[in-house]
Amino acid sequence: MSNFSYVRLFSELGIGDVPLVGGKNASLGEMYRTLSGQAIQVPDGFATLAAAYYAFLDHNDLRGRITEALAQLDIADVRALATVGANIRGWIVDGEMPPEVAAEINAAYGTLRQKNGGKDPEVAVRSSATAEDLPDASFAGQQETYLNIQGEEHLQRSCKRVLASLFTDRAIAYRVHKGFDHMAVALSIGVQNMVRSDLASSGVMFSIDTESGFTDVVMVTAAYGLGENVVQGAVTPDEFLVYKNTLAEGFRPILRRQLGSKALKMVYSKDGITGAATRNVEVRREDRERFAITDDEVLQLARLAISIERHYGRPMDIEWAKDGRSGELFIVQARPETVHSNLDASKQQSYRLTETGKVLLTGKSVGARIGSGTVKTILDASHIADIEDGDVLVTDMTDPDWEPIMKRASAIVTNRGGRVCHAAIIARELGIPAIVGTVDATARLSDGRAVTVCCAEGETGKVYDGRLSFETVEFNLEAGIRPRTKIMMIVGNPGRALEFSRLPNDGVGLVRIEFIINDHIGVHPRALLDIDKLEPSLVSKIRERIAGYGNPREFYVSRLAEGIGTIAAAFYPKPVIVRMSDFKSNEYAQLLGGADYEPEEDNPMLGFRGASRYHSPRFADCFAMECDAVKRVRDIMGLANLELMIPFVRSVEEEINVMELMAEQGLNRGENVLRIHLMCEIPANALLAERFLEHCDGFSIGSNDLTQLALGVDRDSELLAEFDERNEAVATLMGMAIRACKKTGKYIGICGQAPSDFPEITRWLVEQDIESIALNPDSILKMTQLVLDVESGLARMTPQPNDSGTKQS
Description:
Layout: E1 7-9, H1 18-34, E2 45-48, H2 50-59, H3 63-71, H4 78-93, H5 99-115, E3 123-129, E4 146-149, H6 152-164, H7 169-178, E5 187-193, E6 201-206, E7 217-224, H8 228-232, E8 238-243, H9 244-247, E9 254-258, E10 264-269, E11 277-282, H10 285-288, H11 295-312, E12 316-322, E13 329-336, E14 347-353, E15 359-366, E16 370-377, E17 392-395, H12 403-406, E18 411-414, H13 422-430, E19 434-436, H14 441-444, E20 450-454, E21 460-465, E22 470-476, E23 486-491, H15 494-500, E24 508-512, H16 513-521, H17 525-529, H18 536-545, H19 552-571, E25 576-579, H20 585-588, H21 611-614, H22 620-636, E26 642-646, H23 652-664, E27 676-680, H24 683-687, H25 689-693, E28 698-701, H26 703-711, H27 728-744, E29 747-750, H28 754-757, H29 759-767, E30 772-775, H30 780-797, E31 800-801, E32 807-808
Parallel strand pairs: 16-17, 17-18, 18-19, 23-24, 23-30, 24-25, 25-26, 26-27, 27-28, 28-29, 29-30
Antiparallel strand pairs: 1-2, 2-5, 3-4, 3-5, 6-7, 6-12, 7-8, 8-9, 10-11, 12-13, 14-22, 15-19, 15-21, 16-20, 20-21, 31-32
Helix pairs in contact: 4-6, 15-19, 16-19, 19-22, 26-27, 29-30
């Protein structure tokens, strides 16, 4: 060990040294010492001890002055907070570093110089508070960081500035909110070799989903240049989601790729104050329109995150950087995740709008909540006192300096930033919904306008016009008795799948891929395949959507695979049944470029839809892309729990035709445990059930269409509202399907709306011994209890064996 009294090298530190060097520096030392053998590279460095901080205060006689200034401060008075904070920081910056502390800092810097061939290394000078990055509190963004510092003189100046940042306005307020004694929190300075990510890329990753708390994924963000832009929210980074379980088995399960704008990148720049600095430069358009890192690098980063999480035994918040010279990936920080890790895992709170309105703009959602209020636009910190309780704060980017007033807001909306920036972390911790990366919120939302900010509809947050009503429901997720009948879900939105998977369930009985095609793709598949034949204005719109994906076909296949894969991963290894596309012609026509490819039908509900499309010359190439997406989920992502369902099959001959077509596309029923079911929604499916079942693995009843076709009712007509799934004719057809599946030993479930809407139908289905019932997530708990009650009643009615083995009634 070095003979220093005020400094420790990273090689001398471990996680038990938090009282000495704070959570951040202790973690860096821990990883540097113990994880290098697991291919985790941490840049070398050193840290000053808490004793050095107190020596500085005593050397400059500051303890009493700071204590007195803070004792008289009301942090709710943001103007007074700004004045007191500035005064304290000034005292520290103007103070003298104790000679013995300064000498040890220079000596430790000298050890880095020796390893750098005798040349002064460029270093990052960061803060690490002794109460920082604890399992129950995040001090993210509370203190300052200085990058690209070179030379002893500039290092000493930067060290004092870091010490002063313990008293930024946001840090003072945060300590008060968390109940920390100001003088009991010391500051350690971390000095770490710089990674030349100014020549490459960097970002933040979490070993947990930041919105739902789902623990089986790694969320990775990436942007060009040094990482401070991502951390501070100055750019909207690329975003990726990787599934841990099949990654460990050697698959490549990237569940989500979202291209960020990445408009700026931070690079090296010299100045005359600290001796080094950074500046932001614009990113070239061609670089913005591609991802900042490759798929291989995404997967490598996810593996590093898993190793770090495994070492610490809890979800982690990690900063990474890629060296532009060597191409190597480095870990530059790791701290505990503090929001979802501290929630009660047995409870889940869900927000839901009970009315709708006009969508004014969208962005990335932070915190699955809803808030409403009056817009208050604030563009710089000098006006933060203007916000009033319940306002919706609208700004360019949410600066962590504003943490003292963020809690007053009912919601936050920003032009820039991503889901992992410091301000987003603080918003989650405060329980405030935030929408980041809207691009132009400050221009489009006028002050005084009443709005509702909804982050409860998936990964896309929406700002609605007016104050809309909403409800909050709390679910108890504690495992109880499960019914014999499988209770599955109906899921369409991948953005909510991770959240829904926490509800008690037996898998997904219906994935409607139409939601993915409409919301995540938005372009008619034929238009993508024919892009070279389209008019220039349409091509321009399509090119804008497919940026980052190489070519139009790859865009369609990847986006569809990512949406399906997210749902399959959320419920893995439980079965997830995906219905192949069932858009009607009028619905396909609404997609970008769709009007040129779709027929005008008088009744699209009974027209060119479902299985009839798949083998049609005008759609076969489009269906081939769907098949490729499914293969990618099963074979590349490793999610073999994915099962398929074919909708609207009008005849046995059509069923055989589609099965052969799918086999040609590499989806062979029975291969790699692939099961293919039919949607039983046409009376012919029930009437000829045994013949249909010869060529598939089972039925899933679609009660809506079955009702329409059995009763001759247009389900969209308000004139015929008295007809619904409870009709005896519909029950007769459903009963025929159930009995045929039971007789042939095939799967039988129901995925229509009826069980979610009508408890009496759920009761009847259980009495018919149906294998599974798929329900909307909001009816899962209520209907599970109903099924248990019905099964309990049936059990009491069934003759039970006595001790002698004979039956008694």
